[in-house]
Design brief:
The chain is an all-alpha fold. It is built from 4 helices and no strands. It is elongated and about 75 Å long. The structure holds zinc ion.
């Protein structure tokens, strides 16, 4: 993902509409590109800040953004673990079928 693509995706990230592969690429870019990280922070501050100002709440948006990213990261890890588990299960099922076939043939 390059910086242009990243910028276009920021609103999607902020509205939590991203799917897993895009989100993964997005988070990777966030970690490696200071400019885009800053851009994300600004856009987050603007969109969340506007909503908050209307509600009149006090807020700590920097922290909120950081917390949001931490939970996204956790979500990604969970997803990856799940994918791996699915892979292992598939292998086990395939082995089970093979064993059954071999057993029938013998
Ligand atoms: Zn970038």
């Amino acid at each position: 993902m390059n910086c242009k693509e990243y910028e276009k995706l920021i609103p999607e990230y902020l509205s939590h509409k991203m799917n897993y592969p895009v989100l993964k690429a997005f988070m990777e870019h966030t970690e490696h590109c200071e400019n885009c990280k800053e851009e994300l922070q600004i856009q987050f501050l603007v969109s969340a800040g506007m909503a908050r100002l209307e509600e009149g709440d006090s807020f700590d948006l920097q922290r909120e953004l950081a917390e949001g990213m931490t939970s996204v990261r956790k979500e990604l890890h969970r997803h990856e673990r799940f994918l791996k588990l699915g892979y292992v299960l598939e292998i086990l099922v395939a082995m089970g079928i093979m064993a059954a076939v071999i057993w029938l043939l013998i």
